[in-house]
Every structure is written in structure tokens, then in C-alpha cells.
Amino acid sequence: MAQKVLMKGNEAVAEAAIRAGCRLYFAYPITPQSELIEYMAKMMPKVKGTFIQAESEVAAINMVYGASGCGRRVMTSSSSPGISLKMEGLSYIAGAKLPAVVVNIQRGGPGLGDIQPSQADYFQATKGGGHGDYRLIVLAPNSVQEFADMASEAFDLADKYRNPVMLLADGLLGQMMEPVEFKPAKTEEEIEKLNKQHYDWCMRTNEDGDDRHHHEINSLELDPNVLEKHVLSLHEKYKDIQKNEVRYEKINVKDDNEILCVAYGTASRIVKSAITELQKEGHSVGLVRPITVWPYPSEVIANSITKKTKKVIVFELSLGQMVEDVKLAVNGKLPVDFLGRAGGIVFTPDEVIAKIKESL
Amino acid sequence: MAQKVLMKGNEAVAEAAIRAGCRLYFAYPITPQSELIEYMAKMMPKVKGTFIQAESEVAAINMVYGASGCGRRVMTSSSSPGISLKMEGLSYIAGAKLPAVVVNIQRGGPGLGDIQPSQADYFQATKGGGHGDYRLIVLAPNSVQEFADMASEAFDLADKYRNPVMLLADGLLGQMMEPVEFKPAKTEEEIEKLNKQHYDWCMRTNEDGDDRHHHEINSLELDPNVLEKHVLSLHEKYKDIQKNEVRYEKINVKDDNEILCVAYGTASRIVKSAITELQKEGHSVGLVRPITVWPYPSEVIANSITKKTKKVIVFELSLGQMVEDVKLAVNGKLPVDFLGRAGGIVFTPDEVIAKIKESL
Amino acid sequence: MPKMTVDPYYCKGCGLCIKACPKKIIRFSEEINAKGYHYAECFDQDSCIACKLCYVTCPDVAITVEK
Amino acid sequence: MPKMTVDPYYCKGCGLCIKACPKKIIRFSEEINAKGYHYAECFDQDSCIACKLCYVTCPDVAITVEK
Amino acid sequence: MKADIICSGFGGQGVLTIGKFLAQAAMKEGKKVSWLPSYGPEMRGGTANVSVIISDNDIASPLVSNPSILVALNQPSLDKFGPPTQKGGVILVNSDMTPNKLKRDDVDITYAPMSSIAIECGSTRVLNMVSIGMVIGKTKLVKYETMEQDLRDFLEVKSPELLEANLKALQMGMEYFG
Amino acid sequence: MKADIICSGFGGQGVLTIGKFLAQAAMKEGKKVSWLPSYGPEMRGGTANVSVIISDNDIASPLVSNPSILVALNQPSLDKFGPPTQKGGVILVNSDMTPNKLKRDDVDITYAPMSSIAIECGSTRVLNMVSIGMVIGKTKLVKYETMEQDLRDFLEVKSPELLEANLKALQMGMEYFG
Amino acid sequence: MQVIAQRPKSLRDIPFTYCPGCLHGVAHRLIAESMDELDIRNKTMGVAPVGCSVFAYKFFDCDMAQAAHGRAPAVATGMKRSRPDMCVFTYQGDGDLAAIGTAEIVHAANRGENITVFFVNNAIYGMTGGQMAPTTLPGMKTSTSPYGRDADDIGYPIKASELLATLEAPYYIERVSLLSPQEILKAKKCVHSALKYNKEKRGFTFIEFISTCPTNWGIEPIKSRDWARENMLKFFEIGCFRDKSKTVEGGK
Amino acid sequence: MQVIAQRPKSLRDIPFTYCPGCLHGVAHRLIAESMDELDIRNKTMGVAPVGCSVFAYKFFDCDMAQAAHGRAPAVATGMKRSRPDMCVFTYQGDGDLAAIGTAEIVHAANRGENITVFFVNNAIYGMTGGQMAPTTLPGMKTSTSPYGRDADDIGYPIKASELLATLEAPYYIERVSLLSPQEILKAKKCVHSALKYNKEKRGFTFIEFISTCPTNWGIEPIKSRDWARENMLKFFEIGCFRDKSKTVEGGK
Ligand SMILES: Cc1ncc(C[n+]2csc(CCOP(=O)(O)OP(=O)(O)O)c2C)c(N)n1
Ligand SMILES: Cc1ncc(C[n+]2csc(CCOP(=O)(O)OP(=O)(O)O)c2C)c(N)n1
Ligand code: SF4
Ligand code: SF4
Ligand code: SF4
Ligand code: SF4
Description:
The complex is a heterooctamer, with 2 copies of chain A, 2 copies of chain C, 2 copies of chain E and 2 copies of chain G.
Chain A: E1 5-8, H1 9-19, E2 24-27, H2 34-43, E3 50-53, H3 57-69, E4 74-78, H4 80-84, H5 87-95, E5 100-106, H6 122-128, E6 137-139, H7 144-161, E7 164-170, H8 171-175, E8 177-180, H9 188-196, E9 216-217, H10 224-244, E10 248-251, E11 259-262, H11 265-280, E12 285-290, E13 292-294, H12 298-303, E14 311-316, H13 322-330, E15 336-340, H14 349-357
Parallel strand pairs in A: 2-3, 2-4, 4-5, 5-7, 6-7, 11-12, 11-14, 14-15
Antiparallel strand pairs in A: 1-8, 6-13, 10-12
Helix pairs in contact in A: 1-2, 1-7, 3-5, 11-14
Chain E: E1 2-10, H1 15-28, E2 32-37, E3 47-55, E4 69-72, H2 75-81, E5 90-94, E6 108-112, H3 114-121, H4 127-139, H5 144-158, H6 163-175
Parallel strand pairs in E: 1-4, 4-5, 5-6
Antiparallel strand pairs in E: 1-3, 2-3
Helix pairs in contact in E: 1-4, 1-5, 3-4, 3-6, 4-6, 5-6
Chain G: E1 3-5, H1 24-38, E2 44-48, H2 56-59, E3 63-66, H3 72-82, E4 87-93, H4 94-100, H5 102-111, E5 115-121, E6 124-125, E7 131-132, H6 151-154, H7 160-164, E8 172-177, H8 181-199, E9 205-210, H9 214-217, H10 221-235, E10 239-243
Parallel strand pairs in G: 2-3, 2-4, 4-5, 5-9, 8-9
Antiparallel strand pairs in G: 6-7, 8-10
């Protein structure tokens, strides 16, 4: 079915996950993510998959831990307050080197906040809201199509690195419909093959004799020397990920850019349309859009600065979180400015244009 | 009692909190923090205070929310995995502008990890492990005496800014005994006065007539315009905190420093003794020790760099978290190097000396 | 003389009071209130027996009963 | 002929088997094992009736019984 | 070409569907489209509304604050979205549920008894198709044929018995403008 | 002056107390001190140990890896901490529980029947005081008077009946070195 | 002429945010009336949950906290322990109390916290748009049980009152119905008792209201009460599961 | 001569990390023996909790997960749903199951998850050094109830078996004692039954072991069993609280 259909982001990512071979999904309802869980409730039985509405987000992430420990493609999703409840579980999943996909449809915070789109969970997602030295791979889509595409990419990355992957979206991407074209669904044989790739570490049936195994899904290690080795091995993996998996989009990044913008996800859509407008007025403004917000495309940003560039401006639907990563990338070479909105407000192209014009 | 006593960090901070007027404490046992809860279990009844061993860390932080909403001095404590479970609650407390004190006796992670000292929850503490745009004030002691002193400072700061304050320590500071001298305990009248300072917003008895009030302890605001205003007001407060409350210690910071070190908490003790050794060998090495890790002493670090300084080196009991804040402070002016240990290992002065000598 | 009054500011036109009234003297008004609901009204105050069942059943606490 | 054996590698010298034995033929050894425990030993194999109660009660699964 | 549409009405009036059909037809005609509902508890009891954007170019925010086309099926909708409608914008009002007119003369506003027309077609439930028809009739945003096909595809599987009334409503809406 | 001390033994032997008394006395004599136990589940059943540092200067890490003074109350303790003891360091061994000697000749090691001495003083429970006495006798780390006063202050309130045996143990430990 | 029934003083002059015919409002009124009658309005604090009744913090004329989802009993514990002389109550839905908040309600009840918990059981998640609740009936369709709740796969509805009644400490536990004026009048007595016991510091009190959700059930208000009577009352039996005032002389 | 009793195959050749005389080891052995007898060792997966039995993942000779504190039933749910043909069990202490993990155990039981939960009740937190557990007896001193558990202030011990028996779905719930060889032999039968039902996919099965903690009770092994008999068994009555095999023909 290479036909375009109009679909909500929440539903598209669910459909794409199922097509990517996800057969277990555990979650708890929360606005603006509930269509995702509702879609799974409807569709999982049709593919003989498992959907359980967990008793809480805490239970859901721990169900994910169990399923992932069995080497199966498994997903959970929530929105900001619910994601906070998953922090301990995520740290365990990362510590135990388990692949899993977690979707965050961010809403305004802190606390109960509101249910409008926000990007204020950036720190939590990229720096590790849980305890200990660990990292999530964080993919940030900016359209329903990309959201759907990322579902299968997320599972692949999770499997490849045995690491949890977060899809960091927001209420707008979750709730909006856009045309989307799905990849063909994996066959049962393909899924079986995916499961089998984990047979050397995952929990499964055993046999007597030479091929007997004892697989432990575990993050405990009381000897600090051994634990340090384990953490260092995680960091070797993170370095690999930083080397291999940085994804970004450059929009209108040219030698004559006066201003370089950085924005991801929903915010990047607005900034993109703003710079298109500015271009019509004869201003050269570039945009680097991180697609992975961890690993972060620091070098790309650094290299996108030219002699003409006067300033880097970060646009976020928060009061300034990614701006730190941009500053780290720019490393003092240029001033880094910022425009953000909070509490679920999405800036308009006009606001973005005005902000950029301040510096033109 | 201005006499010095030998006491564990866990017990000293508990004693100091009680002296500072803390009369409610809710927590759940976890190593290496349990002496704190055990001390409270023993002493709270003696001052007619409340100690409850909560059913979980989640329940404990929400009990704190309730007690703080009543304008009383209240505290909770835990260690890394348990702190992760408090993330949602902390975001609520910050969102509802409540004063509260949270102690994290960090241990090795991620996941269950081990029970040895670690500083790998730095990101979580300083960037906000919970969802939304919020900040904790984070104080990082490096001795039992300072740990105790900070308890009362933490309550004062929490009250002053109506913001949660975290004491970020580790297993070593929690478990070790050092001499400590306590401030006199607040009298019941003084405590009553502290409680009364919150009467214009906290939950309490009411009266009919003109002085009737309706106080709401709340972080919900469905109108994003109003929520944005609220979040902006939080950020105004955070700016004030950044302006007024940065605390740090400069050790041997001089014009002729070849190397500037940055380390906090337990790590800073080791670095301090290393630079004393190096000084004996004729090397000039300075150390900036952030006492508040949020707000961060960025300017102090920037200003401590002189023409002679060749490099800034960060020392942490993690694989590199505070190093980002140091880079942001240094802003590209100098290379920033790093030495860290993970999983509960504490580096020795010799390791620190060797690392510094690489660059001398 | 008993009397029931509905405050249109609170009423959402759910009809539960109409069902509850033993004398069947409540109906939806032709008018709508600010929120767009046809609020309830008593069309026969004289028959009201002040049983308070409308008040008891009203989920929006829109009703006052006098006697 | 019944026989009970304690594996000193597992035994922690808790004494529960000594208490359980109806024939009272188990005692602590003079020796200590690698972990420093005076492990249990049977000093009168001939009296063993293979009731298995020592095995049943041993929390460290240190005992083997033969018959 | 870029149309910023808001459809707004009471919960049961099917405004989300109006938006979806418009976006879908435009998509099939090769346009970029987006659809964004108001969501969450504020919908309940009150009004529901949806933002639809149809454009030749990439769509920035799917949220419409100043519509170029407004479909207002009740009074609160007109009151809320009439004022921010763009100068020269098109407003289609269900006059059956909108006693008070909008006090503006810089927009192209049509008051049509959409509920009555729907009843004429067989049921108030086809009110949304009347509105879609009117949008097409007024703005030529998408082709009637595309919409008809979509409607057929959708209903022939789901509830063929409703097809006729819906098609009639679509047509009557379109023909309202002659 | 800086002493890096490890006291190690079985759980019930009171090694944490040895450390605490030493640190406390040194504190009273104006020294910088720190005390850090091994903690957590690994203590259980196995050996417990404590690091104590007494110094004229600020103490960096309270963790002692290479002790200058080791008090080993049983075999596993000697096996574990004997080898990393500093060259020239002082090692005091409870010979009653340590059949195997340490194979080193670059340390100042004393094998004393501490358990027997304790029993002689009245109870194995004063083993820790015997050790403290020996540390004082051997190293003069703190003054006997300070320690005695501390012990009195502590026991006079808590359990005066134990004072005598403890004082005796302290003394006999100290006098072990004549 | 004299007013014999009107908005209680303990409700503020703010219209409820509930859907038309939703019985949350009735539960609110019963609580407010009892607060008036017991004259505790000035020494009462309440906790609003996350759920349709999240705005309860606006409605009651006393100081109120809005708690994180499921955590109201913990928040109330913090409040009660801070101000032991005040009456503290929570107001919670079935998702809030019997799913995510299971541990908190069980342990607050087990501690015998001196609080009153008002639990509104409408067999569904209202606020988030009609997902399955722990109290959803077998076979009942919701947006997350689109083929009907399959008891073999995900179990039976949780009976919160019965569950809590296995604990020793609770003082009073009763399930009441809001499905008709007569039942409301009976429910009122129970609400009053619960708050009276609260005022008298007798221990943990718990009222479970059998309620409706016309919107997410997709059944209009009047019929939704009939539906609840026919379906919910069979499963959730009305009655008192604990009343220590009847067994213990003078209570605690 | 023939071996009539020895380490079961389902235990690996690793000494337990428990204190001398701690009955965790007995519970382990009963499970392992039953696994051998039912020949399910190769199709069983277990979940270790956080608690003294955290290292259970090393001891059983099958694949094992180590779960976050209290979350073993959720982890087991994920495992069972992933590999429905395998037997899944959890092993949990009283802090793990009846405090922080209350919601997870109640809901796994309520779903009737096809898993077996082995619950070791020793009235205390062992691993963290002797803090009060939800099962700590009234008046019992622990490091966080230094003046004895005050039931008026913080409630009575939670009876997990009784609590779960209020739910509809569980298939088998029994409380057994490990305090003497005779009781252990009885307990063995129950453990065997639970795993047999598990193998037969009959539903949720739950065994509560009354156990000891010599170390943190400060009572040496043999006496600690006496203490438990005198104090715990009075409160936690031994017995079967649910056995559907006796009521439902052939089970589910
Ligand atoms: C941690 C967290 N998880 C989920 C939500 C989303 N949420 C809001 S209300 C609700 C359920 C409400 O249902 P119920 O408690 O039955 O109350 P009702 O709305 O039916 O009155 C949920 C899941 C949230 N706000 N926070
Ligand atoms: C989230 C979290 N909270 C607390 C702890 C600390 N902790 C480890 S074990 C334990 C209690 C164990 O007691 P129990 O479950 O009764 O088992 P036992 O040790 O007695 O066998 C606690 C509180 C933890 N590891 N993680
Ligand atoms: S019961 Fe109340 S809200 Fe409903 S129609 Fe009657 S007055 Fe209005
Ligand atoms: S019961 Fe087992 S562990 Fe205990 S003494 Fe006997 S053999 Fe050793
Ligand atoms: S959604 Fe249901 S529970 Fe919520 S206010 Fe509406 S009718 Fe009431
Ligand atoms: S602490 Fe207690 S429960 Fe834990 S192993 Fe030791 S005796 Fe057993």
C-alpha cells in the first residue's frame, strides 16, 4: 500500500510500529497521546499482538523491560507527566542494554500543566532524566510522515545498539493529520528473524546439553570495578552512536547565510516557513534541523557557520533547553540567541521572522 | 551545643534539618541513604514531628507536596533509583511553586547499579529530570559539616523562592563520619513564624468575612496563554536565583594558574588535596568548586581563567556530565578536559595529579 | 407557597430534574443560556409541592427551592 | 545403608539441620570452611535413617542424602 | 495558493469530519494539507473546531489562528472565529443556529440555513456534507468530483444506506451559490 | 602527620566502633578525622571494615586503600588488607582467629591473642577495646587519657556496668607493647 | 417564604466543568452540604485528582490541592499530618484511585489516615476521552477495549470498597449510588457520616459513589442512569463494608 | 546406594548470598525442585526482585530478569505476553511486593496473568538493613520503627494473600510456612501445585511464604523460627485462600 492516507501522527506512528514488527505495546492513557493507545487497542488483536492498558506508566515501562528482555519489539508511549514516571524504568532498560521504543508526545509543563504542544522535555530526553550515566537515542520528527518513518528506524536503532530509543514529538505532531505513506508491513517470517537476532542474550526457551544458556537481564553489579567496566562499555557504544547515527537536515544552509537558525520538530516547521519568507525578501538565512537530538549534530552546526554568519538563533517551544547544545556546538565562535514560547504556545512564522530581523 | 561531634553525613543532615525547623519527613529506605530515614524515625517523635515511612518514593514526594502546600518545612530523601521515581512529583512541586527539600545520596547507576558513591545524577538534578521548564536549586556539599549547614540553608532558600531545593550528595558523604558542629535548634516560636510566612498562599484554616481566602495548590492551567505567563514568572524567579544565589569556593585560584580545575562535592575533596600536592612541587593549579551546581557559577569559572591558564579540567565521579556546564562557562576560550570514574569508583589524588600533569 | 427556580447560569439542560419532578411541572425553556443550553424552567409554580427532588437530582446545583 | 553428606562449600553453619535431625547425629565440624563457618557434619552415619529432614530444612541446599 | 480553514460547531455537528474530507480531497488533488483538531477536555460540552490548511507549499504550523475560510455552525463559533478571520476571507454561517450576525463588512459572509437544508436532505446528520458542499460551491477549493468519489469510497463500505442523503447534501450545499 | 587506618573483622567484632573511638579521640585532640564504613549487603555474613583517617591537614577521600595502620581481627581481613598495607606500615593481628600469617617482611606486624585477652578482661565483647589499646600502645596516635575519658563518657550513661571490663581491655591492649 | 434548598455555602459561585447530566456534580453537592451542616468549611482542606474532577480545586470553598494522577491519598497524608486539626478529604475517579493510584489508596487506608476519600466510580476514564478503567465492566466497550473488556485477558473490574475492607485500619467504608433522587438522599447520609467521623478524628473513611459518564458511554443523561442501574449495580453492590462506630464503642 | 535427596538441577552450582539460616534458601529449593519435577526448567523464566533475593537471577538455572523494586509483576507480564508458552514466575519480598509494588501485584493478579508469584514474608526489609515492612507486626521494633510499630499511627500489617483473594481472577492463593521440616514439606506441595497450574496455563497463582530474617531480627536462626511461629503465624494465618481447581472443573 504505497498510497497516501490522511492520518493523525499518533495513529501513524502506531501503524508504522506494527508494520515494523512491534507486537507488544503497553501504555497508559494521557492526552494528547491517547489516540496512539486507542489505535493499538484496535489493531494489535488483528495482528495477534499484545496490547495491555497498564495500571500506570510505571507498570508500562516495566512491562516493556520484560518484553524487551525476551528480545521482542516492544513499545510504550505517553506524554510529559507520564514520561517522568518512566525515568527509573528507562534507566534500568538502558543499564540492562535492552532495545525498546518510547514515544513522548510532549505537552506543556511543569506539573500537570496543560495539554498543548511543547518541547520542554528536551533536557529530560537528551541528558537522561533518570539516574546514572546513560543515554537514549532521541529522534525528533517534524511531520506525520517522518514520525511514521521513524518508528521503524527507532526499532532498528534500538536493536542495533541494544539501547532504548525515544521518539520525541509533541501534541501538535500527535494530533495533526497529514498525508502519510507507509512502508510495507514486515511479514511474520521477517519478524521472527528480528526476534532471533537477540537469541544470544535474551530470555527464551532453553535446552539441555552444550547449547544450554543462562541469560540474565540485569543492571545490578555490586562490585564497583565491574560496574565501571559495564558503564564504560555503554559509553563506548554511545561514542559509536555519536559517530554513526547523527541525523539532521540542512535547509538553505549556504555560504552567504547571515543568520543560522537551529530548530527541531514542530518548531522547525515554523522556522522553515519563516526563512522561506525571508528569502523572498532577499535575506539569506539557513536552518539546521537536528533529526536526532541525541546524538546531537554539533559538528554540522559548527560547520554551517561561515564568515558571513553573524549569529546563531535557536527556536524552541520551551524557555531554552536545546540552546545549551547549540552553544556547546558553536563553542563561543558566535553569539547564540534564542526565541522560545512556553506552556503550550506555538510561535508563528511572523514571530520567527521578527526575531530574525532583529539581527539582520 | 557548639561542641563538635563525630557523625555520619546522613545523620548530620537529618539532625540539622530538624534543628532548622523541619517537622515533617517522608521517605522510603534505600542504601546508602537509610541512616537518614532511621535517624528521622528515631528523632522526629522527640520533637513532636512527623516521620512516615512511605509506601514508595512516589508516595513520599507526594506527601511532601501536601505538607509543603500547608506551608510547613518538609523534607524527603533517597538515592538515585528512588530519586528517579520522584521526577513527576518534583515537576509538580516546582510547577506549584512549593518550597521543599530533597536529598539525593547518589550511588552508581544506571538501573540498580551498585551502592557506592557516584555523581552521575548531575544532569537529572541540574537540568530537570522531570518534564517541563523548571529548575531545582541544587546544593552540593563536600563535607559532613557543610552537608549539615546546607540543610538549614536549603530550607531558607526553598522558602525564599518557593522552589524545591535539592541537596546533591553521594554515598561517601552520606556514610562517612566527620566532626560536625550544629547550629542551635530553632525554637517552636521561630518555627511557627517560619510557617506563618506562607500564610498568604498555603492551605490552612479559614474564616468567614473579609479575610476569607481560597488558596489553591496547583500546577494545572489549561489555557496556554495563562500557563505561559506562569512559566515565564517561574523563569523570572530562576533569573533572580541565578543572580543572587550562586555559591562557590575558589581554592588556590591565582593569576599564575597553569591549569584550572573544576569539581564539586566529593570529587572536589580529592582534587583539592591533589593541587596541594602539586603546589608543593611548584605547580600552580587552581580549583573552582561549585557549591550551587544550579545556579551554576559560570561567570566565576570564566573569570578565573587568566592568560597563563592553558586548560580547564573537570573532575567528576561520572563519565562527564558537569563538563557541559563548564564548557558553556568557558565558551570556547580554552580547551576543556575531563577525568571521571564511573560505577561507584572514587578517583585517588594520584590519579588526579597524573591527569593534571599530562597538561603541565 | 412552594417555589422552585432554576438559575440559567448553572443549568446545562440535562433534564434530570424534569425526570425527577413528581408533578411534572419542569420543562426545557425555549431560550438558550450563554453556554447554548436550553435550560430547565418551571412552567407551573402553583403545583410545586416543595419535595426538593429536583434540587436533589440536579448535578449542577442550579435549583433553589423555597417554601 | 543411608548416608547424609554436607557440602562445606555451601554450608553456612546455621545449625538448622542439627535441630531437624531426629537421630541427633549432626554437629558442627571443628574445621571452618572458606567463608569461615563451622560447617555441619554427620558424626554417626550408621545411625542415619534417611528421613531427609536435614535436607528438607537446610536453607543452603548443602545436604545430599543417599540410601 | 494557500487556504487557512477553520470549521467550528457543537460537538456532535461533525466539524472534524468536514475538515477531514476537505483535507483528504485536496491531498488527492496533489496539494499539501494538514488537519488539526482542538482537543482535550475543553471540547466537551462546548464547541469543537478544526484547523485545516491546504497549500501548494509546505505547511508550517497546522494551527490556524486567522482563517481565510471559516465554517461556523453555531453562534459561539461565529463569535469566536468571526473576528480573527482574515480581511476578505470567506465565512459560511449556519444561520439556523446563529441568531446574532457578525459585525464586520470586510469579509465575504454567507448566512445559510444549513441545518434546514440537511433536514431537507433527510437528516441533521448530513449537516457536515451541506457545509462541505457550500465550501466547494463558494471557493472551488477542491473539485466536486474528488469529493464525491471520496464520499462514495467512504460510505460504500461503511454505511451504503446513508450514501444518497449525503450525496444530496453535498450537492445542495454546492448549489446554494447557484 | 597522617594515619590511614583500616579496621577489619567479622560483623559482630565491633570494628566500626574501633574506628569511631579512634577518630573521636583524635578529633578531640584537634586533628582532622574521617571515618567511612564498608556498607550495604556485602557486609552481611562476611567481613566488615572501616577506613579511618587522622591527619593534620584536610582529608581528601575518606576511603583508605593502602593503610598505614591495619587492625585485622580475623583471617579474611588480614588476607584482604595485609597485602595493600603501606610499606613500613603497622599491622595488628588478632592471632586467635588468624592461623595463616602474612607473607611480608616490609611491615611492622604484631600477632596478639586479642580474643584471649578480651576474655581475660571479662568478655569477647571488649575485643574492640583491646584493639584500640594496642593501637595506642603501638602508635601513640592519640593519648590514652583522651580515649579513657571518651570511653567513660560513653559508657557511664549507657551501661556503667560494662565500664570496668572495657577500661581493663583498653589498658591491657595498650600495655601489650610493654 | 423561606429557602429550603439552595447551593450550599461550601460550593463557590462557579459552574461545574462537567458535562450535562454528569453526576460528579451531585457528589460535589453532597460533600459541600455536609461540610455546611458539620460547620467544618473553615477547617477543611481537599485534594482534587487528575480526571474530570481535576477542577474540584476551584469548586469547593476551602483550600484545595490538585494532586498528581493517583497520588491524592499521599498528598492528603502530607496535609493531614501537617495540620492535624483540619479535616482533609480527597476526591478521586476510578482511573485515578484504582489504577495508577492503587498503592497510595491501599496504604493510606492501611495507615488509617484520618482523611475521607470520595471515590467516583463511573466505570471509565472520563477526562481523557473514554478509555477502559479498572472498573470497566466485562464486555463493556471503551476506546481502549474496542471489542469489549475481555475478562479472560485483562481481568474483572476492581471492587475498591471490598478490597480496602480487607484492611484492619479503615473506620468506615460504604458504596452508595447517585442514580436517583432517592439513592442520592441515602448517599447523603453516608457522606455526612464520613465527614462527621473525619471531624471526630476517628480514622480513615471512604465513600464509593456509583456514577455515570453520559459523554463517554455515549448514553444521554437520563438513560445513562438506567444503564448504570442495570449493569453496574449488579457488579458493584451498594452497601456498607465497614463501620466501626457500630462495632467499636465510640470509635478509636 | 542411591541419591534420594540432593541439590535440584534447577539450582545452579552457586552458593546463596543469604545469611546463615535465612529461609530464602528453602523457598528457592522448593521452587527448583518443583521445576525439576514438572520438567519445566527449559521453558521457565523468572524475575528477581530488589531485596535480599536480588541475586535470585544467578541461582535458578533458567533465564532470569532482575526487576526494579516492586515491579516484578509488571516485568513478568511483559515476559509472559512475549513468550506465552513459557512458565514465568516472580520471587518477591514483602517490601518489594506489599509496599512499593502494591499496584503492580494487585493489577497483575487482577488481570489473572498466567504467572506464579512467590512472596517471601519476613516482616522486615532485609537487604537495606532492617527497616519496617508493610508486614511488620504491631509493636515490633525495626530501624524505622525504633519504638515499635504503632498500629494507631501507621496501621496494621498488610495481609497480601487475603487482599488478593478479594479479586476475581486469581486461580490459586495459599500462605505456607517454612518454619519446620514438616511445614516445609507441606509448603512444597503448594509450590508444586502453583507451578503445575502455571504450566497448565490456568491463571494467576500466588504462594506466600512465612519466613525469617535472623540477621535483622537479631535472633539466631533456630530461635528466629520460634519467634516467627509465636508471633507471625497468629497474624498471618496459614491456609489456602483460593483454589479454583477445587471449584471450577478443570480450571479456566
Ligand atoms: C501521570 C499521568 N498519567 C495519565 C494522565 C492522563 N489522565 C488524565 S485524567 C485520566 C483518567 C481519569 O479517569 P478517572 O480517574 O476515572 O476520572 P474521570 O475522568 O472518569 O472522572 C488520565 C489517565 C495524567 N494526567 N497523568
Ligand atoms: C526504587 C528503589 N527504592 C528502594 C530501594 C532500596 N531497597 C532495596 S531492597 C529493599 C527492601 C527489601 O525488602 P523486602 O522486599 O522485604 O525483601 P528482603 O530483603 O526482606 O528479602 C529496598 C527498600 C531500591 N533499590 N530501589
Ligand atoms: S437537573 Fe439541573 S442542570 Fe439538569 S436540567 Fe435540571 S436544572 Fe438544569
Ligand atoms: S542446615 Fe545446611 S547450612 Fe545449615 S548447618 Fe546444616 S548443612 Fe549447614
Ligand atoms: S466526561 Fe464523563 S465523567 Fe467527565 S464530566 Fe463528562 S460525563 Fe462526567
Ligand atoms: S538480611 Fe535477613 S532476609 Fe536477608 S539474607 Fe539475611 S537473614 Fe535473609
